[in-house]
Structures are given as structure tokens and as C-alpha cells.
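so the lab meeting is tmrw and i was supposed to have these ready like two days ago... anyway. pasting both below. for each one the top line is the aa sequence and the line under it is the C-alpha cells. i havent really looked at them closely yet so no promises
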Amino acid sequence: METFETRAAITRFLFVEDPPEAVDLAFVFGSPSISSIEPAIALFRQGLARQILITGRGQFPDGQPEWRVYRDHARAAGVPEDALLVEPEASNTFENAAFGAELIRRELGWDGIASIAICAKPFHMRRALMTARRHFPAHVRLVARPPSGLGDLAPDDWWQSDWGRQRVLEELGRISAYALKGDLGGY
């Protein structure tokens, strides 16, 4: 039987969120829904992020790659093309972080990056942060900026649906699998 304390511990562990703040880059982990890019766009519009990096080749229900849908959405929201970096090959969280880190190294250089906002689904934030920590230099401060879209699992009610419980418990299993393979950094 699930207890309140168990739910609260899972929620505290997975659902990480920091207040918006100035960062050098907003790093968006792709997913098949648009909400993950919203915090990056908000940071850009508020003058809190100079650039947005979008990573992910997964597909939206209409067959378009995540990176393209996210890029087009950001451009429609007023983010200029020269403020967008796109990594179109990553197919999972490990690759998002690894390929994105290489793109940062190649295009921007790590010396000018002191902080990055991690934009990923709320229930996925812990693994996104830990995977980024594995691939990003230690001097880079990570800021958790999950979306709060209508279709996103929220920390205050994820357990109220079978789908929400299943997604959260699967995420705990994925964190374990990543840890066993050495794919996570400390966070």
C-alpha cells in the first residue's frame, strides 16, 4: 500500500524546480509534446537566457522530429534563428546530454558557459539534471526549469491517475538503469 510519505519522497526526488534566473543557455530535452520548450522561451523573452539549445530526434504524433517542432515553435514565439542551437540526432536522455555537450563545446566553448537552465518534463527533471551533470563541466551551474503545461504530470497530483503512477515509477526505474551503467553524474 502506497503511503503519503512514499509519495512525498518520490515527488521531492523527481520533481525538481528552481526559480527563473539568468543563465547563459537554456538546454531543452526533446519529448513528443511541446511544453518542454516553454520555460526556455520564457527565459529568453525575459532576457534571462541568450540562447536556447534544442536536442532530440524523437517524433511528434504527426511524424515531425522533436527538434524541428521545438525550433519552429520557438521561432514563432519570437526567438531569432541565431539564438537557437539544434542537436538533431539524440534519441534518449543520455544522448541528449552527450551530443548537446559536444555541440556546446564545438559552437560556443565551455569557457563562456557558467550556468544552464535544464528544460525537461517535470517527472523527468532529476534524470535530466543527473545526466547533464555527467556530461557538462563541473563549473557549470544547473538550474531546473520544468514546464507546467496541462498535459504535464505535476508534483501535486501525479499519483491520481494510473498513467501518472506508471510514468513516475518507470522514471525511477530508468534512473536506476542509468546509474548502473554509469550514465549519471552527481546532483
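ok protien two:
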Amino acid sequence: MNATIEIVPSILDRIRKTLVGLKMPRALEVLDQTVRQLERGEASALEVIDTLFAEELTLRENRRIKMALRMAKLSTIKTLAGFDFSFQPSLDRNRILALAQLDFVDRHEVIHFLGPPGTGKSHLATALGVEAVKAGRSVYFASLADIIGALAKAEREGQLRERIRFLCRTSLLIVDEIGYLPVIPGGGNLFFQLVNARYERGAMILTSNRGFAEWGEVFGDPVVATALLDRLLHHAVVVQIEGSSYRLRQHADLMPEHVRSKASINSPIPAQPPRRRGRPLKHGANDHQPAG
């Protein structure tokens, strides 16, 4: 049986003051409990030290993650553990878990999640973003409409270059909801400038309910769409989700038959266009075309 150890109160007081001076609130909080374990012989001195440091490190790591998630604009936290793969049998679970290893971030690749509304595209994109934050990568999440709106505002204020530079700082940029809302005039060109700046320099995740063949309609200009796809498909992983809306699963019988039966989107990958480089040429205040 382990012998008990008596801790001198004055030493304990000095330890408390030291922990306060070192700004280690969690270690201070669990100090008395771990000391009692030491006194009862339930833990060695090294185990007590290990516990104090581990508790403090956990607290600081949780604070870091919380702050990083806020900076990433990931206000709604989704995880891979919370994703119902059984509801979307078209998804390869192992493939998604492999993406969560974040090698694509290091390789500056682009992940495309394509599928009808409600099939889990944003959930998966957010979950991968959360994994990246936990791993210490910088992340920024926004809808396409919000990104283009911010770029348009920056252009009006003469700050476009600075805004693009800001959006290029993160290791992973997540662009959600491509194709859900109309793109403002000139918006496609602004987005192209951002994509061109991040090309082969930073990873991206894109979600869309529209197939690549429809991007000319989405961005209001087939030339802009071709220039975008030229870069976004060069180093890319395309994940097609073919299934029903998870959000509407309990009300499927209330949906019209033509909506219920539309389980996939038309998303053929166009033939790889010739390589393009450079920034778009300006033809007017709001009429930009990508360089050929």
C-alpha cells in the first residue's frame, strides 16, 4: 500500500502564488484535488505535475480553438461525427475521413461538394473547417454572396487589393452556397481575381447546388466561368452527393413529386480549357472579362 505524504502548507501557498503569477488558472483550480491524491498515495509527484500541466494546456487549447472558430466565421459548428452518412449512401465515408487528414490543405487543393439543397454540403465543408482549426490551420468561411459583396465594397472604396490579400492569408478558404443567389454584375470577375490570387497558394472548399456546366449562368458570363473552372479544377477533388434533403426527410411526402425525385444535379466536368494566367482585363467600370 502506498504511503501517504504530507504537504507543508507554506509550500502549497507558494505554488498557488506561482500559478497565479504564471497565469495558469486551470492548474490552480485543480491543485488541491491533485495534492490530495498525492497525500493519499494515489499519484506520484511526477503524475501530479503532469496533471497540472495537462489541465492547463487543455484549457488554453480550448480557448485557442474557440477564438479561431470565431475568427473563421464558423458560428454554427458542425462535425464529421455528427454527419449521418447512412442517410447519404452515395458518399464514401472513408474518402471524407481521408480529407479530414488535411493533406489537401498542405497541397493547396480545391474540394468541391456538389449536390441538391439539404444533402450535407455545408455540413461537410464546415466540419472540415473545424478539423483544420483544431489542427492549427487558419480558416475563413463565407457564402459566395458575402464574399463578392465584400469584394465589391472594397473595390468601391479603393481597397480591393487589400481585401483580396486578407482573403489569401488563410490556409483554407471555404466558399459556401455557389449558385443559390444571383451574382451581382461584375461579381464573377471579382471572384475570379480572388481565385486567381489563391491559385496554387491556398486551399479552398466550395459548395454548390449547380453543376459546373451551369456556372456560366451562375456567374452571368461563360468566359468568367471558364476562367474560374480553369483554376478551380486544376488541383481539385470533386465530391458529388446524390440524395434527398436531410432537412426535409420528415416531410418528404409533402413535397411535389418532381422535387422529390430530383436527387442529383447535372454536373459534368467540362474539358480542361487551355491554361490561363494573369488578371482580368477591364472594359468598363463594372464590365470585367478574364484574360484569355
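from a quick look at the 2nd one: The domain at 85-289 is CATH 3.40.50.300 (Rossmann fold). DSSP finds twelve helices and seven strands in the chain. will dig more after coffe
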